Amino acid sequence: MLAFMSMLFAPCGHQPTCQSPLFPLECVFSTGPHCHLCCHFLYFIRNLNPETELKRYFGARAVLGDQRPRQRNRQFHRSTWMTSPKDSWPRFSRPGISMTLLQSKDGIHYFTFEHSRDYQQIQFKFLDAVESMDPNNIVALLQLNPYHIDSLLQFSDVCRMQEDQEMARDFIGRALYSFECAVHPLFSLTSGTSRLDYLRPENRAFYLALYKHMMFLEKRGCPRTALEYCKLILSLDPDSDPLCMLLIIDFLMLRSREYESLLQLYQDWEEHRNLFQLPNFAFSTALCYFHLSQQEDMDPEESHKQRCKADQMLQNALIMFPGVLMPLLDLCSVQPDATVTSHAFFGPKSQIMQPPALTELTALYVGRTYNLWREAPVMLWLEESVKEVLRRVDAKDPIVDDCQDKRQQRYRSAPRNIHRHVLLSEIKEATSSLPLEVTTQPMMSFDPLAPISIVHTLALFFRSLMPNFNLQVTYRTQAAASTHRDSCKGPPFWSVISTATYECLLFPLICSTLFAPYTLFPQNGP
């Protein structure tokens, strides 16, 4: 256990390589090499505009349509990169959000968003509106404060549930516009050197707005633009990866046909992050090599080499994660051979015996990427690899038992950010595999699964009623747990001070609801 903790909280710049067979899954999302890092986050800012990608597909005339003749009638909007302001939007006035530079160290800039006193009052009203469970209250709040971030995010979800995708995208775009108008002059979208701490409540809405915008772009048929936003989110906190962008970046790279970029990312980070522990990277890198081997302009010898590498990696992935195969074939509407269904290695036991964390990861990967495996050449290649894997299993290949031991040791529990990613993905195959401690707790879409290092408002309030309560001891305990984080990202205790301020500001809300507990915890029945 001490070895695990030393690995988990190793100082930045001295990360251990993940060679131990017991290396925990958390390390995939808690440490990261600073070498080779920024090169993966460098891109042209024009790639953040989906029109750039759509013009490549359909041409500028089809994308722009009749926009140009109407330019002179537009109201003035500040020029931004992430979104294009619409004439239908309310006139913009600063909502009370600003960005502050906390520290610059080794070429990395650490920022945070801050809320003005007036914005905090609006935030209290928003929390009241959420507790009322009536969307009309959020609509009323937005009419008075059309650029309040959390209201825009919350009502975007309401519109999406009502299948009004256009309106849902519009609200997310308005939130991003409000954020971009507040960023610090040194905050860079493209250099990969700007950081935002997810532990700070004020910063989380920016992460969530970027994530939701990314998913809208992917569904709109702009995977390359979505990939750029994925890189942007990952660059904000690559060490902790609070939204687990490593679980989706491979999918977006495959959809964008960025095969070389995905393989380069895997090669640069595998030594430090053990990316092969993630089913998505194990299978996606194999799929990358296969697609490269199929390119017509490739030298035959090089093509053969790529195909051999693809075969080897896919077989290793199937041996390490046998529970992926049957759900994948089921979603692809493929009936497997009788020799496969009757074999114990790929049978129901392979899924039943999986640790819960691994079930969550495999369900997420299958539900997200099964369409990439439906192509006839890919399915034939998968069939050949499955037959070879069964041959190796029957031949008692020692790697089979070794992988079984690793599955039981490495995937006993999933980090909280993986659960958060699964909730945001809304992939039913994955959300159904979430543990009870996640599904039974109250969930707010504007702040899903808040970090556990944040003292919960109600818990802090009721603890304050105890005779031995000491607020300073409470925050010193939090500060000790985040010493490593603060040493890497900014001045000591900044995150704790910000959190303390934010929690104390919510105290009036607790008092107002103390005598109406049923408004805080709605009942499903009498």
UniProtKB/TrEMBL annotation:
A GO cellular component term found in this entry reads:
RQC complex
Pfam short name (any one): Tcf25
- The organism's place on the tree of life at top rank: Eukaryota
Q: Which PANTHER family does this chain map to?
A: NULP1-RELATED, RIBOSOME QUALITY CONTROL COMPLEX SUBUNIT TCF25
Q: What name goes with this protein?
A: Transcription factor 25 (basic helix-loop-helix)
